[in-house]
C-alpha cells in the first residue's frame, strides 16, 4: 500500500550542527556549553520553525544577553553554515528513489526565512514533488495538523506515505496520523526498510 516517501530534512538528509558552527568562535568548551544551553538554545530556535522572524527573536535574545549580541546576530544570516554536509548515503538514496519513479515529498521544521537560501544550495531537492515547511505553514511537527495537511496536499491516503524522521516524537505522531513511519538511524538501515516495503528493487 505504501507508494510515496516523505523525508524530514535536518539530521536525515543533511547534518545540522549548531555546535560545529559556533565552536570556532567560542574555543572554550565550558563557555560553548553555556552559550548553547542558555543563549542560542533549541527552544529559542524552534520559534523560527514556528514562523517567527529572526529580527524579532534575535532582538529579544540580545536584550536578555547583550554581551552575546555579535554571536546571536550571526545565526540568521549565516544559518547555512550550521549545515555541515549531507548525511552519508542519503543524496544517493534520494536519487535512487527518483530513478525508480517513487514520489518523494518532505515535511520539515524549518524557518520560512532560512529555507529558500538553504534549499538553493542542495540539488537533491529537485527530486521532491512538494515540501511542507513549518515556518511557512505556522505548523510544526509533531502537531497532528501538519501530518493531515501533508496527506491532503500530497494526495496520499492513510497508509500510502512512508515518513522518515530522526526524532521519536515526530515519528510517533506521524504513525498516529496516517503514515507508515520510520525513525532514522542511518542510510543502510533505511535502505533495508525501503526494500522490505517494495519501494526499492
Account of the protein in words:
Pfam families: Hydrolase. InterPro entries: HAD-like_sf, HAD-SF_hydro_IA, HAD_sf. The protein is globular. The mean pLDDT is 98. The strands form 2 sheets. The protein has a 5-stranded parallel beta sheet, with helices on both faces. With 201 residues, the chain is of the alpha/beta class. The protein has 11 helices and 7 strands.
Chain-averaged pLDDT: 98
The value of Rg in angstroms is 18 Å
For the biggest β-sheet, the strand order reads: 5-4-1-6-7
CATH homologous group name of the largest domain: HAD superfamily/HAD-like
Order of helices and strands: EEHHHHHEHEHEHHEHEH
Helix content range of the residues, please?
Answer: 40-55%
Cα(first) to Cα(last) distance is 16 Å
Name the overall outline.
globular
Q: Would you tell me which CATH topology of the largest domain applies?
A: Rossmann fold
- CATH architecture classification name of the largest domain: 3-Layer(aba) Sandwich
CATH class of the largest domain: Alpha Beta
* Number of helical regions: 11
* Helix-strand category: alpha/beta
Kindly estimate the percentage of residues that lie in beta strands according to DSSP: 5-15%
Number of domains: 2
